[in-house]
Design goal:
The complex is a heterodimer of chains A (173) and B (654).
Chain A: H1 5-20, E1 42-43, E2 51-52, E3 62-67, H2 72-87, E4 91-97, H3 104-111, E5 120-121, H4 125-129, E6 137-141, E7 147-152, H5 157-170
Parallel strand pairs in A: 3-4, 4-5
Antiparallel strand pairs in A: 1-2, 3-6, 6-7
Chain B: H1 2-30, H2 33-36, H3 39-62, H4 69-74, H5 81-86, H6 92-112, H7 119-143, H8 167-196, H9 201-232, H10 243-268, H11 272-295, H12 308-332, H13 347-377, H14 387-407, H15 418-443, H16 448-472, H17 483-508, E1 510-516, E2 521-524, E3 527-538, E4 542-553, E5 556-561, E6 564-568, E7 574-577, E8 579-581, E9 586-595, E10 603-611, H18 613-631, H19 634-653
Antiparallel strand pairs in B: 1-10, 2-3, 3-4, 4-5, 4-6, 6-7, 8-9, 9-10
Helix pairs in contact in B: 1-3, 1-7, 3-6, 6-7, 6-8, 7-8, 7-12, 8-9, 8-11, 9-10, 9-18, 9-19, 10-11, 10-13, 11-12, 13-14, 14-16, 15-16, 16-17, 17-18
Classes of the chains: A alpha/beta (173), B alpha+beta (654).
Chain lengths: 173, 654
C-alpha cells in the first residue's frame, strides 16, 4: 500500500489544480458587498458649483465606475461604456480617481462621455473608502444605495454579459 | 518566410521526437539493436531543428518583424538589440521554445556522453526524453505557436516588459531552464531503470554527474533571479516567497535531497526506492513549476503569461507524465531490494535525516504556495500566504538540517561512534556557539535569529575545515584529493558563507523612506545622503528622471548615486531603476519613489544600507562551482568503464 501513497497524493493535487484552472485568483471579494455605499460629496468635473453624492441616486440601480485619465485599461472599456450609455440601459457614474494632471474634462470631450456625472476624487480618499485597489473598478449599487457587486479590471463584452447583465436583471434595472 | 521556416522546423522536430521516443523504447523492450540505434541520431536531429526554429524566432525579433504576433507583443523598434534577442524568451511562447531547446541540448549531451552505457539504457533514457519533448512541442504547436502571424501588422511593437530589461534577466531564464530541464535526465534515468528493472549502483553512478550539473545550473538560475529582484524591483529585497520563486525553489530542495540520496545509493546500495522516488519528484516539481507559472492558477507578481486553455493542456500533460511515472514506481517498487544495513549513527542515517528534512521543507513551501488555491477550490475563501508563514516554517525546519550538515560528511559509512564524534567536533561546536552568542552582543545586543544563523554558519565552515584536516592527516596532499570531495566541501562552505550573508543582511539592514527636497539630506548607518534634484534623461526606449544623490561620511563626499525613475515609451509603464554601490562589506542602495506633486522638486526617496548582502551571492557562487567540480570527478568516467564491459556482453548475449 505504501508504494501507492505518492500516486494518491498526486491525484488529489491534480483534482485541486483542475478546479483551480476555473477560478480566478485575482478576483478578491469586496467586504463592501451588501453594505451601504460609503457616502461622499465631491465636486463634479466640468462644473464649479455642482457636487455629486450617492444619495442623489436613491431609487435607481446604478454603476459606479472608478477610472482615471492616466489609466490605460480604462480606455479599453471606454467604448463599451459608451455603447451602454447610448442604449440608456444603465446609469453610470464615473468617479475620476487621482486625476492630478486635470485631464478628465478634456479627455471626455474628446472621446465621449458615458457618465451622467463625474465626481472628482482628486485626493483619492473616496476611492479608499470604497476599497479601490486599482483602476478600473466598477460597483453595482441598488435602489437602496447598497453595493451589490464589484468588478475589478476592465469590463469586456463577455464580462458584461456574464456578470453584469444577470445582476442588473436580478436588481430589476 | 523565415517565421514559416521556423514553424516548419518545429513540426519536423516533433516528428523526430516521436521517432526518438517510439522506436528505441520498443527496441529496448525487444532487444532490437537496430531500433535502439535510432535514438542517438533522432535526438541530435531533433536538437538541430529546434535550434533552427530558435534562430528563426531570434531573427524575427532582431529585424523587428511585427507581422509575427509574438514579436509585436513583446518587442519594440527602439528596444536595444541585446534585449530584442532576450525578448525571444521574454514571452510565454518563446520561453517554451527555449524550454524544448534546452531539453534538446540535454538530450544531445546524453547521446554524446553515453558511449560507455549499455545500449538499452541509452535507448530508454533518450526515448523517455523524447516522450517529454513530444509533450512540450505539441503544447507549443497547439496552444502557443511562437510564429503566429498578425496581419495587418501594428506600426510598432508593444515592447518587452520593462522589468525584464535588465542584464540579470539576460541570463537568468536560460540558466534556470538548464536546471529545470536538466532534472529530466535524472528522471529519464530513473524511469529507464524502473523499466529495465536494473536499479543498481551503476544506475546511481550514471545519474549522479547529470543531476549535479542540473542542480548547479538551477542554483545559478535561482541566484540570478534573486539578484535581479534585488536590483530591479526597487524594494531592496532579494527573496519574496512569491509563487514563481517557490516554483523554482521546490525542485531545488528536492534536487538537493536527490544528489545526496544518489550518493548513498551509489556508494552503499541503500535507499534505492527512495532515490528513484526523489528523481521522479524533482522533475515533477520542475513540471509543476512550469504549470504554476504558465497556467495562471496562482496569482503572482511575475505571472507573465496566463491562460486557462494552456493550463488545461499542461495539467493533462502533468497528469500523464507524473501519474504514469508514479504508477510505474508503485508497480516496480517491490522489486527494489535495499542492500547495505547501517546503524542509526552513520553517514547513511545522517543523509537520510537530511533528506527527510529537505523534503519536509519542500512540502512546507508547496503547501504555502498552493494554500490559496486549495482554500479557493474548497470554497473557504480567498487568502494569500506571505513571507511570515514561510519564514516561520522554513527557518526552524532547515536549522536541524544545517546542524546535521556539519556532522554528516565526517561520519563514517555504516556506523560511527558517537563519543568519538563528540571528541572530533567539540571544539568546533564550542567555537560556533560562543561566536554565535558573542557576535550579536558586539553588534546590537542579543538577537536569537542572528545567533542561530551565525552559529550554524560557523559550525558548517569549521566542519569543512575539519574534513580537510582529517583527510590530509595521513600524508595525503591537497592536490590528490578527489574533485568530488573538493566539490562537496566547496558547496558546503559556500552554503555557510551564504548563511552568514543572509543572517547579517536580514538582521542588520537599515532602510529609510524619506521625502527629500533639493539640497535636503538624511542619514543612515553613518552615511549622509544629500539629494541634488533630478534631471531629464532620454534612454533608447524610455524617458527617465535621473536623481543625483551624494553619499558622504564624516563630511567627506564618497560618491554620487544616480537612481532613475523611468517611463517606458511603448507601454507607458513606470519603472524604478535603483542605484546601488556594491562593496564587499555592504551595499548602499538608493531608489527614487514618486515625485511629490505639491512641490515640483520634492521626491520620495528610499535609502537602504545592506550589510554583507554580497556574501550571499559569493556563497552561492561557491556552491555552483562545487557542483560543477563534483560532477567532473574522474571517478565517474573510470568507474563507468569498469562496469561497462560485463553489462554490454550480457546485453549482446541476450
Amino acid at each position: 500500500m505504501k508504494r501507492w501513497i505518492p500516486l494518491i497524493l498526486f491525484a488529489v493535487l491534480v483534482g485541486f489544480f483542475a478546479k483551480g484552472l476555473f477560478l480566478n485568483p485575482r478576483e478578491v471579494p469586496s467586504p463592501f458587498i451588501g453594505k451601504p455605499a460609503p457616502a461622499f460629496s465631491l465636486p463634479v468635473v466640468g462644473s464649479t458649483e455642482q457636487t455629486f453624492s450617492p444619495d442623489d441616486m436613491k431609487g435607481k440601480v446604478w454603476l459606479l465606475n472608478v477610472w482615471a485619465p492616466w489609466c490605460v485599461s480604462c480606455r479599453q472599456e471606454h467604448p463599451l461604456l459608451m455603447s451602454l450609455a447610448k442604449e440608456r440601459s444603465v446609469t453610470i457614474v464615473g468617479l475620476n480617481w487621482k486625476d492630478r494632471d486635470r485631464e478628465a474634462a478634456q479627455l471626455l470631450a474628446q472621446h465621449g462621455n458615458p457618465y451622467v456625472a463625474v465626481p472628482d476624487d482628486l485626493s483619492g480618499k473616496t476611492g479608499i473608502d470604497y476599497g479601490v485597489t486599482g483602476t478600473p473598478e466598477t460597483y453595482v449599487i441598488d435602489r437602496e444605495g447598497v453595493i451589490r457587486m464589484k468588478h475589478v479590471g476592465p469590463i469586456t463584452p463577455e464580462v458584461w454579459a456574464k456578470k453584469f447583465e444577470p445582476k442588473l436583471k436580478e436588481l430589476g434595472a | 518566410m523565415i517565421p514559416e521556416l521556423g514553424h516548419f522546423a518545429i513540426i519536423i522536430a516533433l516528428l523526430l521526437a516521436i521517432t526518438q521516443a517510439a522506436l528505441p523504447l520498443v527496441g529496448a523492450q525487444r532487444g532490437n539493436l537496430t531500433l535502439m540505434a535510432v535514438a542517438r541520431p533522432a535526438a541530435q536531429g531533433q536538437f538541430v531543428f529546434l535550434l533552427i526554429a530558435y534562430a528563426c524566432l531570434a531573427y524575427s525579433f532582431l529585424v523587428n518583424d511585427f507581422t509575427v504576433e509574438n514579436v509585436a507583443r513583446n518587442s519594440f523598434s527602439q528596444l536595444p538589440e541585446i534585449y530584442r534577442f532576450t525578448a525571444t524568451w521574454g514571452s510565454h511562447e518563446g520561453s517554451l521554445l527555449l524550454w524544448v531547446v534546452m531539453l534538446g541540448f540535454w538530450t544531445t549531451a546524453v547521446s554524446v556522453f553515453s558511449r560507455h552505457l549499455p545500449d538499452d539504457m541509452v535507448a530508454r533514457v533518450l526515448g523517455i526524453m523524447g516522450l517529454i519533448s513530444i509533450g512540450f512541442i505539441a503544447f507549443l504547436l497547439l496552444t502557443s505557436n511562437p510564429f503566429d502571424r498578425l496581419i495587418p501588422p501594428p506600426p510598432d511593437g508593444r515592447d518587452m516588459n520593462p522589468l525584464l530589461q535588465d542584464w540579470g534577466m539576460i541570463i537568468h531564464p536560460p540558466m534556470l531552464y538548464m536546471g529545470y530541464v536538466g532534472f529530466a535526465v535524472a528522471f529519464a534515468f530513473a524511469i529507464a531503470a524502473l523499466l529495465s528493472g536494473r536499479l543498481d549502483a551503476a544506475w546511481a553512478r550514471w545519474s549522479r554527474p547529470w543531476t549535479t550539473v542540473a542542480w548547479a545550473f538551477l542554483t545559478l538560475g535561482i541566484v540570478l533571479g534573486s539578484w535581479w529582484a534585488y536590483r530591479e524591483l526597487g524594494w531592496g529585497g532579494w527573496w519574496f516567497w512569491d509563487p514563481t520563486e517557490n516554483a523554482s525553489f521546490m525542485p531545488w530542495l528536492a534536487g538537493t535531497a536527490l544528489i545526496h540520496s544518489l550518493a548513498v545509493t551509489e556508494k552503499r546500495g541503500a535507499f534505492k526506492a527512495w532515490t528513484v522516488l526523489l528523481a521522479l519528484i524533482t522533475f515533477s516539481l520542475s513540471l509543476l513549476g512550469t504549470f504554476l507559472v504558465r497556467s495562471g492558477v496562482l496569482s503572482s507578481v511575475h505571472a507573465f503569461a496566463t491562460d486557462p486553455a494552456r493550463g488545461a493542456f499542461i495539467l493533462g500533460f502533468l497528469a500523464v507524465v507524473i501519474g504514469g511515472s508514479l504508477i510505474l514506481y508503485a508497480w516496480r517498487a517491490p522489486k527494489m531490494v535495499t542492500g547495505g544495513a547501517f546503524s542509526w549513527f552513520s553517514r547513511e542515517a545522517m543523509l537520510l535525516a537530511n533528506n527527510v528534512i529537505l523534503l519536509a521543507a519542500m512540502g512546507a513551501v508547496l503547501l504555502g504556495t498552493l494554500y490559496p488555491l486549495l482554500m479557493d477550490a474548497l470554497g473557504l475563501g480567498k487568502i494569500s500566504v506571505g513571507p511570515p508563514y514561510f519564514n516561520a516554517v522554513f527557518v526552524p525546519l532547515m536549522a536541524p538540517a544545517l546542524f546535521l550538515l556539519g556532522v554528516g560528511p565526517l561520519a563514517r559509512w555504516k556506523g560511527d561512534s558517537l563519543p568519538d564524534m563528540v571528541t572530533r567536533l567539540k571544539w568546533a561546536l564550542a567555537v560556533a556557539v560562543i561566536t554565535g552568542f558573542a557576535l550579536p552582543l558586539t553588534l546590537e545586543g542579543f538577537n536569537p535569529w542572528a545567533t542561530l544563523g551565525f552559529t550554524l554558519a560557523i559550525w558548517i565552515a569549521l566542519s569543512v575545515l575539519i574534513g580537510f584536516r582529517e583527510r590530509l592527516r595521513h600524508g595525503t596532499r591537497l592536490s590528490s584529493l578527489p574533485r568530488a570531495f573538493w566539490g562537496m566541501q566547496l558547496a558546503h562552505f559556500g552554503l555557510a558563507w551564504g548563511i552568514l550573508g543572509m543572517t547579517l543582511v536580514a538582521n542588520y539592514e537599515q532602510e529609510r523612506d524619506v521625502r527629500m527636497n533639493v539640497g535636503e539630506h538624511t542619514t543612515l548607518a553613518g552615511y549622509t545622503f544629500t539629494f541634488r534634484g533630478t534631471t531629464e534623461h532620454d534612454g533608447p526606449n524610455y524617458r527617465a528622471a535621473r536623481g543625483t544623490v551624494e553619499v558622504s561620511r564624516d563630511g567627506k563626499l564618497l560618491y554620487t548615486l544616480r537612481p532613475e525613475k523611468r517611463i517606458y515609451n511603448a507601454s507607458g509603464m513606470p519603472m524604478t531603476e535603483a542605484a546601488v554601490r556594491y562593496s564587499l562589506t555592504s551595499d548602499i542602495y538608493v531608489a527614487l519613489g514618486e515625485p511629490l506633486d505639491d512641490e515640483a522638486n520634492a521626491w520620495a526617496v528610499r535609502v537602504f544600507h545592506k550589510p554583507f548582502i554580497n556574501w550571499m551571492w559569493f556563497g552561492a557562487v561557491f556552491m555552483i562551482v562545487g557542483g560543477f567540480l563534483a560532477a567532473s570527478d574522474r571517478r565517474y568516467r573510470i568507474a563507468v568503464k569498469k562496469v561497462e564491459a560485463p553489462v554490454r556482453a550480457a546485453a549482446q548475449g541476450a
